[in-house]
Model the fold of this input.
Amino acid sequence: TKLEKEIGKTRSELLSDAEELSALRRKYAVSFEDEINKQLKELGMPSAKFNVSFDENAGKTADDVTSNGFDKVEFLISANKGEPLKPLQKIISGGEMSRFMLALKNITARLDGIDTMVFDEIDTGISGKIGTVVAEKMSEIAKRHQVLCVTHLAQIAAYADAHYLIEKQTEDEHTRSSTVRLDADGHCREVARIMGGEPDDGVALLHARRLIEEAEKKKSSVNTR
Done:
């Protein structure tokens, strides 16, 4: 009888905690949606709409409680104007997913325990202007994390604290990849090359140098906030 009373009390406390967690989750879901939508617009997805969906048919008894409470939550997104909201994992493209993850990590960077983040070709389908915004957001994340980024966009490469060039070479019918860390001059030449210019083209080098200088100014302002 004593144990049954303790079980009943524990079940009641468990349900109460789950209800409190659900209330908090629903409260902050609203501001989370607003933040993600704001970030996505800045990242070149002006028509995207993000939504946190709660399954209202999910069970809400003590038996339904897991380590995450009793809520069943799904992220929904409409990447383009006129499209209905659908599950994020089913409809978003690789480039859009990269930008969504960048928006998410820019918000949660202070909370998670991840030391290193890798963004592989996050520049897919974005313009130069948005590329700069993406680079700025990665600089924000890099204040607290190590960020590795594979890119073919000069605006992003210009923001690198350390720029590595990866090249493939074929020797004796074997292909090998090599990775070399570039010095300041090599960094500038590679940014110029990515822009479509020749590494020794004076105009391309001047443009690359200006990009890097602007990036350094922006990074300095980020680090002093």
About this structure: The mean pLDDT is 88.
